[in-house]
Design brief:
single chain; 418 residues; alpha+beta; seven-stranded mixed sheet; 19 strands; globular; Acyl_CoA_acyltransferase; SCP2_sterol-bd_dom_sf; GNAT family N-acetyltransferase
Length: 418
């Protein structure tokens, strides 16, 4: 069957365009097993996508085919924001809303759209692409590798919860979510500029964090609360967005802090809430000090650990030069990339944490696939571990040297889902 592939213009207000974008949003929700869209959801979706200049792709049944209409059988969207690569905020192609109708799987629809989009990113000089996947087996074939991980915890805050020696030099204040938004956004922007692995927030985060709209329900989100932390100079240096859940539980939706003191201050506040026995958060920072600051470290239980941000390197020299390096050295890295974007051999020389990377015809000393390069790019997946898994090839001394150069002490971390 010949499908009708098209890019929707979300600024077009013609009857046909409005019907097609309503059908497109409906197809996305159908793909993620969500209810059919209401008018307000579509209006906000369109507003956000216009603000972020999102490119909206889809595949439709051809006119006259049984089932043809404004609803596509496959959806795909992408936008450009930034990734904190460690040495700079790198342009990032963010991929989202990928669905295929259950009646049209294995027809090459995703392949057509993702390859067209990656070609477009390369043409526009975007050096890296990213997505947050709901299935771990799909995107490796297009060179994406899991680069950050989602660490979920339950914290037991019943009687006996205590810190070893922490006294908050600042304080926490509760604000209404809309009132807190400028402070929340200010903290996040500073956090994003500092934190390797962080991805910028798309436009819908304002509606999410002000409670203006509940994308998991309908209408305003009346459940969320916002706590902001002030340092001893009364400057906001952290926030927690949370809601009371069932069985004496508080669920943290988002939390970020600019100092360990602010992080512990927020945890202390959440633990002190009346009639709360458990605080849960599913994107805890790998270096969160909570467990080691508590008198009883067993009060923190890991509930999940799974991949979160998937990266795909499109411009190898640009991407590798944008990240920090741990040791001086030289390696000739060969990348096997079936799509060709990152394929080739690259001479990487690192000195004082900075790399110079150029294409070369020299013999490779270390060999990886594009998928593996995406996984190791931020340093959260150690080279020796990938070597033991059979995913890094080369002589032992060469791989050890590459590991010393590439593996980073401080973990990368991302809060942003999309």
């Amino acid at each position: 069957m010949d499908y009708d592939f098209a890019i929707l213009d979300f600024s077009d207000e013609s009857d046909e365009a409005v019907a097609r974008r309503r059908g497109w949003v409906g197809a996305v929700l159908r793909g993620f097993r969500d209810p059919r869209p209401e008018d307000e959801l579509i209006d906000r979706w369109v507003r956000h996508y216009r603000a972020d200049e999102v490119v909206v792709r889809g595949a439709w049944l051809p006119e006259g085919e049984f089932g043809a209409g404004p609803m596509p059988v496959a959806t795909y969207a992408s936008l450009d924001k930034t990734l904190n690569a460690g040495r700079e905020l790198l342009p990032l192609r963010m991929i989202t809303d990928v669905t295929t109708s259950a009646a049209h799987r294995r027809r090459g629809l995703l392949r057509r759209m993702i390859e067209d989009d990656l070609d477009d990113a390369v043409a526009k000089g975007v050096p890296i692409a990213a997505l947050t996947a709901s299935e771990a087996t799909i995107y490796g074939r297009w060179g994406f590798g899991p680069a950050t991980f989602r660490h979920g915890v339950d914290v037991n805050t019943t009687t006996g919860f205590a810190f070893r020696s922490f006294t908050d030099p600042g304080r926490v204040e509760l604000l209404e979510p809309a009132e807190a938004w400028p402070h929340v956004k200010g903290v996040f922007d500073t956090f994003h500029a500092r934190q390797r692995g962080s991805v910028d927030w798309p436009a819908q985060y304002e509606d999410m964090h002000t409670g203006a709209y509940d994308f998991n329900g309908s209408g305003g989100n009346r459940k969320i609360r916002t706590a902001v932390h002030l340092d001893d100079g009364r400057r906001v240096d952290g926030f927690a967005i949370f809601k009371h859940d069932e069985k004496d539980t508080v669920k943290v939706d988002e939390m970020a802090a600019l100092t360990p003191q602010a992080q512990l201050g927020l945890w202390s506040f959440l633990a002190s809430l009346d009639r709360v026995k458990t605080v849960t958060f599913n994107i805890v920072h790998p270096d969160d000090p909570l467990m080691w600051a508590l008198a009883d470290l067993n009060r923190v239980k890991t509930t999940e650990l799974e991949e979160f941000l998937w990266l795909r390197v499109l411009d190898v020299p640009r991407a590798l030069e944008a990240r920090p390096w741990a040791a001086d050295g030289t390696v000739v890295l060969e990348v096997d990339d079936p799509q060709g974007h990152g394929a080739g051999r690259f001479l990487a020389t690192t000195r004082d944490g900075v790399a110079t990377v150029t294409r070369t015809d020299d013999e490779a000393t270390v060999r990886v696939t594009a998928e593996t390069l995406g996984a190791l790019y931020l340093g959260n997946v150690p080279v020796p571990q990938l070597r033991r898994a059979g995913r890094v090839d080369g002589a032992d001394d060469d791989v050890r040297r590459f590991a010393a150069m590439a593996d980073l002490r401080e973990p990368a971390y991302n809060l942003t889902g999309f």
